[in-house]
Amino acid sequence: MEDVFGKALMDYHLGNYTEDILTFSSLDEEDAIPLPYLFRNFEAMPLLEQKAMEMARGSVLDIGCGAGNHALYLQEKGMKVTALDSSAGAIEVCKKRGVINPINQTLLEYKEEKFDTLLLLMNGVGLAGTLDHLNVFLRHLTSLLKPNGQILLDSSDIIYMFNQDDDGGYWIPSNGNYYGEVTFVMRYKGNKTAPFPWLYIDYNTLQNACAANNLSCELVLLGPHYDYLAKLSLKEY
């Protein structure tokens, strides 16, 4: 797949910023990802991310690390961080920015080490792709946890994007899929990705999936727009 994301990050890092990444979704939405935002410092992070930074402890795996903002912040606090991303360009940018342990691999390929904290921020749970794949995804995350480890993830309930009727119900397409399953294409400087699935998951559905996979699920913080930060951990018996 064309590394559109990695090329955009590298351009920005090298001072060649002329345009943002465009995204096109199955919700018939066109949007842009501003490249400066992908290089934000702690002060510019949303409260959900700042809270996750404060809660991170021990050894940390930053999953879908992008340009390495979270890894760099935690490194500066003296923490041991592994930064993981499937984008070779993103990992190259991480190296250039001083991330100590960046790894270019997909999450499901990665099996080398166990951690005290797994970070999945900027809707990192979206990497699961679809609701049907969520159990496999959660089981793999569990395999990367130390006994008292934690998973910190944020997501959004995108129910607000659907039309509401007079009774307060929502008109959701009856295609049999969970409404939080979205397909995206990213485009940058004439290059575009193949369509890829991305999962937005409401908190109740996440709770149910955790219960089915021997995980406790705690709502840590609600964001301003249907978003939330959750902490997952292995259930104790």
Topology record:
Blueprint: H1 4-13, E1 21-25, E2 30-33, H2 47-55, E3 60-63, H3 69-76, E4 81-85, H4 88-97, E5 102-104, E6 115-120, H5 134-143, E7 145-156, E8 181-188, E9 191-192, E10 196-199, H6 203-211, E11 215-222, E12 227-234
Parallel strand pairs: 3-4, 3-6, 4-5, 6-7
Antiparallel strand pairs: 1-2, 1-8, 7-12, 8-9, 8-10, 11-12
Helix pairs in contact: 1-4
Name the features.
237 residues, alpha/beta, Rossmann fold, 7-stranded mixed beta sheet, 5-stranded antiparallel beta sheet, 12 strands, 29% strand, globular, transferase, methyltransferase, SAM-dependent_MTases_sf, methyltransferase activity
Characterise this structure.
- This protein is of the alpha/beta class and 237 residues long.
- The protein has a single domain (4-234), classed as Rossmann fold.
- It contains six helices and twelve strands.
- The strands form two sheets. Strands 5-4-3-6-7-12-11 form a seven-stranded mixed beta sheet, with helices on both faces.
- Strand 4, helix 4 (88-97) and strand 5 form a beta-alpha-beta unit.
- Helix 1 runs parallel beside helix 4.
- The model has no long low-confidence stretch (mean pLDDT 93).
- InterPro entries: Methyltransf_25, SAM-dependent_MTases_sf.
- GO terms for molecular function: methyltransferase activity.
- Keywords: Methyltransferase, S-adenosyl-L-methionine, Transferase.
